Amino acid sequence: MSIFNQEELRCAVCGHVSSYYMCGSMSCFGDKHLDTRPGWHNPRSECFLQCDDCKYVAPNLEEETPITLDWVKRKEYAQLEGYTFESNASQRMFRRYLIDEYLQDAESCFWDLLSVAWGCDSFWEKENARMCRKMALSIVEENHLFEDGKPENQILLADLYRRSGDFHQVEERFANLDLGEEELNKLLQFEVEKAREQDTKRYTVKNALGESDEILDREIVSEDEESQEENEPEKVEETKNENQVQEEQEADTNLI
Ligand SMILES: [Zn+2]
Description:
Elements: E1 3-10, E2 17-25, H1 43-46, E3 49-50, E4 57-58, H2 69-73, H3 75-78, H4 88-102, H5 106-122, H6 126-143, H7 151-163, H8 167-174, H9 182-196, H10 205-208, E5 218-220, H11 223-226, E6 237-239, H12 242-251
Antiparallel strand pairs: 1-2, 3-4, 5-6
Bound molecules: zinc ion.
The site of zinc ion (ZN) has 8 residues, from loops.
């Protein structure tokens, strides 16, 4: 169980004083995902607070910032550039992405968008999740991020391309890449195989290593659909275990 401490803070942008729950310690449950997500938690989103009044988002609301009240009052910021997200975590982290974009901090923008995508995954917002991954990859390409060759980052990138539906990039960039370690190569090859199957679902490291067959996103055909006329095209509905949804959404902590 995560522990949250309540603290009174004064927003550096608008001066509004309010009480916030600060994350003291975080427990993690679930296996690590291939895109570095540690189980069902969304750690980056849990480290950012959003001002109750002006909606400024920062890890420390009281710290001096170049962001002004006029800036956060703009329609684009207040209305998330027209996007809608179900979860508070995704809304909060998309606002932080807009701030980091304004501050020209490309690497933070990347992690903000990944955090938005995780919030979307938890709330089953597939199209938003795909859009955020595509935006994150554009930032990587435009700013030449992750060109240090760090093996873990290659797996993260392969996962982002695959989950955003860009299977061709996975094949081209990663099919013949040697990461120098058997286990890492196994994870990368898993990504390549799934891309060849045009599979955009979530998988854990244990799934990829064959150590777990837990299914995070699964496709089932409902009984009604199975009993349909044979000549009707089969409809496949994606769903997931109710307990899993509940646990995941609880992990997507609403800090405010
Ligand atoms: Zn404020």
